[in-house]
Give the backbone structure.
Amino acid sequence: MRLRRARLADLDALVRLEQSFSSDRLSRANFRHLLRRGHAEIWVCENRGEVAGNAVVLYRRGVHAARCYSLVVRPNQRRHGIARALLKHAEAAALSRGCREMRLEMRTDNAAARGFYRKHGYATTGKIPGFYEDGSEATKMCKRLGRAAGT
């Protein structure tokens, strides 16, 4: 398993990973834009020569919180520690950029994701009705980064 920053050559693999979702997918144009802009990072995990997962992290100038916009693992690669490795790497990268928190939104009905994030120190901070394109509610979660938070 190898973690690295995504590059434009990964565009096809990133788009294929999005096919794991039935809705709320990032498009090729979205990925291209994120790969080129300075206030976003996309991290990929390569496993056995293929991109097995990615984490998209957004930053805003003057804000000391990063946003984990997306964390995706190829279905046949799940339960191998890839999501954990990507999340920890994304948190460390955000901390190195001066961020004190990592925030995210996830579908309220996604119990597996909620359990995963809670296990890694995230707490629920609120809900957003109608957040997703199908009208589903989002749960907002947050984690303090740094030594005081145990990372």
Q: What stands out?
A: The radius of gyration is 15 Å. The helical segments are 11-18, 28-36, 82-96, 111-119. DSSP finds four helices and seven strands in the chain.
